[in-house]
Amino acid sequence: MIPVAVREAGLPEGLVAIPVRTRLVIPGDDLAALVGGAVRGIARPGDVVAIAETAVAIAQSRFIAAEAIRPSRLALMLSRHAGALATMSQPESLQLVIDQAGVPKVLWATVAHVAGRLRGKRGVFYEVLGEAIAAIDGYTGTLPPYERAIVLGPAEPDRVATELAAALGVHVAIVDANDLRRTKALGASPQLDRAGVERALLGNPHGNGDEQTPLVVLAWRGTGPHPLVTP
Length: 231
Prior knowledge:
five-stranded mixed beta sheet; 17% strand; alpha+beta; three-stranded antiparallel beta sheet; CATH 3.30.1330.100; 9 helices; 2 domains
C-alpha cells in the first residue's frame, strides 16, 4: 500500500504527514532497523519521523497483561465513574495509576475533581494526576496479541530519539497522540521543535486502532529549512 500524505489545517504549506505501516512490533526489536526499513524511500534526510510511544514501549518490554493485575476496591469504584479515557475506565489500568501515584494523591485528586465539578470546572482529576495517567495506556482490544496489554510509558524517550536520529539521518520524536486532538512529544532528538511536532500531529495520523502505522513521516516539501527543526 502506498502511504497517503495528509496535511493538518494551519500548518505551513509543504508540510505533510505520511503514516507508515510496519510489521508488528515485538519485545526486543531493533528499532533502528525496523524504522529505517519502514521509512526507506519515504523519509528524506532531515525529515522528521514521529514514532508512537506504544511501539517504543513494547520494544522495551514495558507492558503488562491486564489479567496479571488485581484491581483494588478503590480502582474498581473510581473506574465505574470515569469518563471515556481508557486508562481511567479500566480498573486494571487505574490500579497501575494508583500504584504509581499513591493512594493519598489519588484520593486528593478525587476530592479536587468533585470540588471542581461543583464550580463548573472539568478535568481536575486528570490535572492532578497528569503524568501518572499519561505514562499508562489502557488496553484497546484492537491489535492481537496486545489487545489486553496495558502499555507503560517508554524508558528514556529523549535518549532513544537521539540515538535513532543519529542512526537514521532524520530527526526523531517519540509521541503520545490520541483521537481527542491531544498530542505530547515525550522524547525528541536535538534541534526538534516539540511544540511544532505536537501541532502537526493533532489529527493523529498514527491512528488509534489496528491501523498498524506507528510511524509518521513529517515531510517538508516546501522551500527553505524544515519548519519543525531549529538551526
